[in-house]
Amino acid sequence: MRISQPRLLALAAMAGAALTLMNSTAAFAEYHGGEVDLAAASGGPTGTYYCTDADAFTGAYSCFKPEGDLLYIKDTVKDGYSAVAEWGYPDGSNGRTGSCVNKLGSGNWGVCNKDFTEGRFLELTSATYVKANLIERGNTRSICCT
User: Fold this and answer.
1) Would you state the pLDDT for residue 6?
2) Residue 77 CB neighbour total at 10 angstroms
3) Local confidence band at 44 (pLDDT 50, 70, 90 cut-offs)
4) From CA 144, how far away is CA 22, in angstroms rounded?
5) CA 41, CA 59: separation in Å to the nearest integer?
6) Taking the CB of residue 140, how many other CB atoms lie within 10 A of it?
């Protein structure tokens, strides 16, 4: 039985696609948590707010303002990375976790408007990413109470 060249090429393409789909080592980039929000341009936080340590090494500085449940994230280093405020609950019982992603560039603040469960501790971590791939994470700060 003789197989024509177009059919042979089609079979080879399908076999290659099948092998790619079956490859379990393929990694998919993603931000921290189940909720990912793109930060809107903003000034820095005002009033009462709580921040992670200013960490020039990670290039990100994040703050939480309980009134309004606002997450602020500042990109502090011109390195081409996005600054990200990662958040979640310490006990994990709520199941909500996420990222507020600042793609506004170095020196700029961004804000994400959230709706957190009242009276709960919130954990906040500053991080940097490139194309949804984690570069570095700073220290986590536990903040009472949302």
Assistant:
1) 54
2) 17
3) very high
4) 45
5) 17
6) 14
